[in-house]
Amino acid sequence: MVHFLSKPIPNATLQNERFTKQSGWHMWYLSPSLSEYFAVSGYNNDGRTFIDLFSRSNVHCTAKLKLLYSRKFGQHSGFYYRHVSCLEIYCNSVVTCIGREVEIIDMSNESPGLKFCRVDGETSALAVRGGDIFIGLRDAPIVIVFNNDLAKTKEIVLKGINDSCYAWDLSVLEDTIFVRTNDSRAFAIRESDGSILKQFADVTGKFLEAHTISASKTQELTAIVWSDKRIIVYPSTQKGSYLVIDVAYDVWRIRILDKEGMMMTGNYATGEIMIYDLEQLRHIGAMKTMWAHLLSFDQFEALKNYFGVTLEMSRIEMGDRSGSRSTNVETKIRKVECLLTVLREKGYPDPWNTLKTALPAVVGFDGLLASIMTREKEWEDEKHRLVYCLDNANLELEISTVNHDVAKTMAWERINNEKVQICRFLSKELAQEWKDVGRNIGLSDEALDHVEADSENREEANYKMLLQWARTNGSDATIEVLVQALKRANRKDLADFLEDGEGEMAKLRKLYTKEVEFVKQERERDRREFAKRIEKLEKELKDKNETQERMKENTPTETNTLTMKQVRNMKGFKNEKETMKEIPELTRIQSTNSIETPTEQLYHGKTESLKTLETAHRSKVLMKTPKAESPNQVL
């Protein structure tokens, strides 16, 4: 499914003062870090280049950018295109390349760069992944990889791409390189051998050209700008929904902020940076698509007449440069957007709620209102963490515990409690055939292997597999799909159980009741076991204390007053050195329950009498020692 958005309002618009104070500046490269910074590079018409480092703490507000550090460079042999990327290894540092030169710069210091090297070709793109630096060359379809010391570690030849092409924009995610080439195509490239994993296509069918690309690890999606003003957000799975966004300005670079779930776009001419909340865009796109599917053209006319507004066709048409005709759904979406804009211009502060309140007054809109209210309730639930509570058992099921390498994709439809209960029930019932069931519901062998490797037992693997399927497919994850998958895996008993009953809700209530009863029994058993363990520990602690008290009472005090003389008489030692070695062992035997004896205190230097005792003993030994007969004799 494709969701369309037209000219969404950004969550933040950030203006670089450099572009407002002096003319002739252009943004060339944009690079957010994983932490709190993002860097912008560009050039002036007179040949100078710049790098600005900004704080990411204010990306959620509309304000001027907080400039942390800035660096200007003079003319560089006719090269304008300076690339930059934040380097996580060094604080406040960036890696930049221009022409054939690559340099790591500490932006907080005006001194020369930290490291410098030259490459065998003009640079065309730059990306950083951890401590690895990926640089595209303009002379050939080659990406060179450096470490953080700018030592070359690898050279990746992009296979399946014309020799005259090169990487114009780069984004690296785990072991995949996302490339936009100079011939306006976009690819996902395997890092190990440079082969093509996927070529991205314009899903709108208008044969647009790719312009810039970015991928996200946390969001598990890829964003591509097509022909400057159309952004397409691609899901990680084929069954996911595409988000098509038409903007009113030329997008020169696009980057995704992984942790925040935000999308950042940069304007080449004005230097403005627009920040969008991807989850919010996804919700708005889904809502407008739902309206377009539920509204007929006649119903839309009735709604428009109810408000007494006229929609100009020039505002509905998007000025598509391809000249192709829009689909009915896309046209109705644009009509809805135009109607919302007109209502906002007429002074309605919340056009969405205005439309919803008007629906009951329009004939035939009761079903539409119910659908809208249901979808918005699901959206409100989705905004919270995916934690579901079984009220009767007071048990929280936290979906975020699922391994993120397997089930990272946020569902575009809420997983309801009943689906979770089905997943939990089947996870206990499936055995060796669990992978067959997984394949039947559309999961790949690679995904199943990941689930198996990250699970401690079969039940956990079953649950993660089913939950991933439910989250990825949303409303398409139905009981009927599970029933057919179970039948093909020769588990007709489970399929019959899901089909049995008086209807779908009866099945779900049956599963829910069974699960609640099971949870109650488990909780009661855990409470009993916990009480037994506490009682046992208390008894052991009491016995230990009583034993220590008895040992203290039975310890004779006279055995704790060993002196060095007594030790020498007991063991027959002749000198002080041997006596001092033996004292710790004898006092250890005499002492009990970690209570130091006076002799131990003497040995550890805890009393003043030790020094007196040693002095007196040394004097007595020296008086009885004969003179040395040779210089080598040891006293």
From TrEMBL:
Residues 509-554 form a coiled coil. InterPro entries: DEATH-like_dom_sf, Death_dom, FADD, WD40_repeat_dom_sf. Keywords: Coiled coil. The keyword Coiled coil applies. GO terms for biological process: signal transduction. SMART domains: DEATH. Residues 419-502 form the Death domain. Signal peptide: none annotated. PANTHER family: DEATH DOMAIN-CONTAINING PROTEIN (PTHR15077:SF12), FAS-ASSOCIATING DEATH DOMAIN-CONTAINING PROTEIN FADD (PTHR15077). This is Death domain-containing protein. It comes from Holothuria leucospilota.
